Amino acid sequence: MFRNYKRIIVQILKYVIVCGLIFCIVRSLLAEDEYNKIPKFNDLEKLMIETEMENSKRSLIVRNTCQKYNLGIYKDPSKLSAFKYPPTPQYSVFYIVRSRDLSYCPIYKAGSTTWIYNLCLLMNVREEELNSGKEQISTIARRAIPELEFPEADEALRTTKKLLVVRHPFERLLSAYRDKLENSVAGREHGTLHFYRKYGSKIVEKYRETNFTPPEEYLVIRRKDVPLPAGIEPTFREFVQYLIHTDLANYGDDHWIPYYLYCTPCLVDYDIIAKVETLWQDQIYTIHKLHLQDTIKPKWRHSSGYENAAMIYFGQLSKDLIQKLYEKFKLDFELFDYSPDDYYQYARAS
């Protein structure tokens, strides 16, 4: 009987040890974010070379496009410009960290949360404060990195490395709509009610047809565990009509103003042009290029969203509306080498 008891104890101990090992392995795997692994030296060296080449290509496309349309520092006064362009950069929108030789123009809905968070870390803001949810990260960042005014800002932009992160213009516009205008009930801590009152209600008043019917359910995405919209918000189609017919330079919002007006790439010679579509490798490249790897690590701080969101929402639009929207943001498309072609196939049949 004693032997049986001893055998049972041994089996229990083995079971506990095995369970403990499994638990440790699982916890290790969960804690180790695959997306935050820094490449080993050989892989890192290869990534840096490849991304450097891609960055040079992106910079060249920007310069050629600015020259093509006679804009900014490439302007020939004897020739007409195809686009109305700001005479100076918007100095107040930049986050300039002179101590780390970095100036960043935040294009909202294009990886801005990730890089504003990174800048806060560079300014020794504690992650506990950034993750507390008590304030928006942009508010914390602006407190840590006050605006610079001309001529101080102009001097800083000439002497620091300048970073710009862009995204496919249509994807950014859709993200802005879904985050700020689609649902005035949810996300009020992020200003959705403010956006409804300032923009949404006016869009509905101007662009809603008398025989309006809401989009079919297959043309919208409802987020789980989120209250339904009130039914008073603009549709994506109405938002697009507003964008097409509005002077965005004077009446737009930071979340959908064109890149060329907000970050003025024909006036500011950006050293690094990153893209949301390649943000992981672009982050690694930027961090190592600017020697920031001891302070910040590459990380994605955005919700993944829905891969087919554009296919769904652009189904509310006709090809004609998509074409007009493209024309409105054409310069952004050309400056950063994006194409609208895939989106025409999402258009409704009639």
Automatic annotation (TrEMBL):
One of its GO terms (molecular function) is sulfotransferase activity. Its EC number is 2.8.2.-. Coiled coil: none annotated. It is a single-pass type II membrane protein. InterPro entries: Carb_sulfotrans_8-10, Sulfotransferase. GO terms for biological process: carbohydrate biosynthetic process. The chain crosses the membrane at residues 12-30. It comes from the Eukaryota. GO terms for cellular component: Golgi membrane. It is an enzyme of class 2 (transferase). It is found in: Golgi apparatus membrane. Keywords: Carbohydrate metabolism, Glycoprotein, Golgi apparatus, Membrane, Signal-anchor, Transferase, Transmembrane, Transmembrane helix. Belongs to the sulfotransferase 2 family. This is Carbohydrate sulfotransferase. The lineage of its organism: Eukaryota, Metazoa, Ecdysozoa, Arthropoda, Hexapoda.
